[in-house]
């Protein structure tokens, strides 16, 4: 039975014959501005074309056979689907009660329990069976909880755990990897990403979607690590977002995977009297790449996350010149690398102060930005050093750019003097 939830306007254009439903109404009731709008209509194609006429944008079919269309315009995404049966029947097929809403004549209505869930700010399935109608819904429950600051009551967690066990036993039912990647990305970019990953582990969904990370759970480390491998990983992810709220996806992925190589490199050192994880950064980088490629993350995101995992154990040197050289050689990983290093230290016990030292030294040393190009062109270098086109020109430009980064060279005249010395020094000849 449908019941009124609230009286309020729908502040977006509504095509004739279309009815707003779902998450946009939930967001409005939670005090958020929605960017994804869902509509049902008897003729969704006509409704989508009407919206495009009024709003502009790009219209394309999501699934033409099922009558699903999407319009992207002005920072909004409008999805149109066919209304099958009555509105109540449509809502009862949806994923969670707080999404089982529709708007009509300045009123939001929903199924029984929707108002209670909105007031309690919790996620509860419309029916547990609905999780099995779209197997991505259990992962989406965790993502919604993390991104919207909602709770998962015991009955929901139990239902998600049962669904996770089903997916482990029926791998053929797993959702498309692209859809999984999208949900995981939105989860990692949410304000409570670490809590969301904790929920994935507690419900068994970590084993389903990120099994390579399951080996960190309960992994004892010793030394400055007072947390097990998984708890430390969640701490690093939390501290990265705390230090750098705008951290991009590849930095958060690197925080999540930075120690994934530890279970594979764990060896007992009798001299130290504890386990060590030599080479875990290199091994972890390869695992990271394989995992993210399997999930269909973009190549650039994969490569940057891999590089950050590989370099997260690099120790910044002391001294401004050496530190500028250190970061210049890793310039494509900035500013993510120092933030990841700092977050890693905040996830330990006894060396937390190093986190602030790393960030302070980075900010102070790079208060003068690193150079992006040499002060002299390739043609100028060839004329100055009497060189023909070839590898030696590239080495000269590379040496000049490094000297600029270190602060040794600041003007064109200094650049010429440096290269003349560099040529005569004898250390630049090809091996």
UniProtKB/TrEMBL annotation:
The keyword Transferase applies. Its cofactor is Mg(2+). Gene3D superfamilies: Beta Polymerase, domain 2 (3.30.460.10), cca-adding enzyme, domain 2 (1.10.3090.10). Transmembrane segments: none annotated. Keywords: Magnesium, Metal-binding, Nucleotide-binding, Nucleotidyltransferase, RNA-binding, Transferase, tRNA processing, tRNA-binding. Residues 225-358 form the HD/PDEase domain. The keyword RNA-binding applies. It holds the Pfam family PolyA_pol_RNAbd. Coiled coil: none annotated. Belongs to the tRNA nucleotidyltransferase/poly(A) polymerase family. This is HD domain-containing protein.
């Amino acid at each position: 039975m449908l019941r009124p939830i609230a009286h309020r306007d729908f502040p977006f254009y509504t095509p004739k014959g279309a009815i707003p439903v779902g998450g946009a109404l939930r967001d409005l009731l939670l005090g958020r501005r929605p960017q994804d709008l869902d509509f049902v209509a008897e003729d969704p194609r006509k409704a989508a074309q009407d919206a495009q006429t009024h709003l502009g944008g790009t219209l394309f079919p999501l699934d033409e056979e099922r009558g699903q269309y999407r319009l992207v315009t002005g920072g909004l995404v409008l999805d149109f689907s066919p209304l099958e049966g009555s509105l109540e029947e449509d809502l009862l097929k949806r994923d969670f009660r707080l999404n089982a809403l529709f708007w009509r004549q300045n009123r939001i209505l929903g199924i029984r329990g929707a108002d209670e869930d909105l007031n309690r700010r919790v996620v509860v399935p419309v029916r547990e069976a609905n999780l099995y109608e779209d197997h991505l819904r259990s992962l989406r429950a965790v993502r919604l909880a993390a991104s919207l600051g909602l709770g998962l009551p015991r009955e929901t967690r139990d239902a998600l755990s049962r669904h996770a066990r089903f997916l482990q036993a029926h791998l053929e039912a797993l959702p498309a990897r692209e859809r999984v990647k999208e949900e995981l990305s939105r989860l990692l970019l949410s304000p409570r990403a670490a809590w969301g990953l904790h929920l994935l582990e507690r419900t068994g969904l970590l084993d389903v979607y990120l099994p390579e990370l399951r080996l960190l759970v309960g992994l004892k480390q010793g030394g400055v690590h007072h947390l097990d491998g998984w708890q430390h990983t969640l701490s690093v992810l939390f501290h990265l977002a705390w230090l750098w709220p705008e951290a991009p996806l590849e930095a958060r992925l690197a925080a999540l995977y930075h120690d994934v190589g530890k279970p594979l490199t764990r060896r007992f050192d009798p001299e130290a009297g504890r386990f060590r994880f030599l080479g875990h950064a290199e091994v972890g980088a390869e695992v990271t790449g394989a995992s993210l490629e399997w999930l269909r993350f973009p190549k650039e995101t994969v490569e940057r996350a891999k590089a950050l995992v590989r370099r997260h154990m690099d120790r910044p040197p002391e001294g401004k010149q050496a530190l500028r050289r250190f970061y210049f050689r890793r310039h494509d990983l900035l500013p993510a690398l120092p933030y990841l290093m700092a977050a890693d230290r905040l996830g330990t016990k006894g060396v937390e102060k190093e986190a602030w030292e790393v960030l302070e030294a980075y900010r102070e040393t790079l208060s003068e930005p690193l150079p992006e190009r040499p002060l002299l062109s390739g043609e100028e270098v060839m004329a100055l050093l009497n060189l023909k086109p070839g590898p030696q020109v590239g080495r000269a430009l590379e040496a000049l750019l490094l000297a600029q980064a270190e602060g040794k060279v600041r003007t064109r005249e200094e650049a010429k003097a440096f290269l003349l010395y560099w040529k005569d020094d004898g250390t630049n000849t090809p091996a």
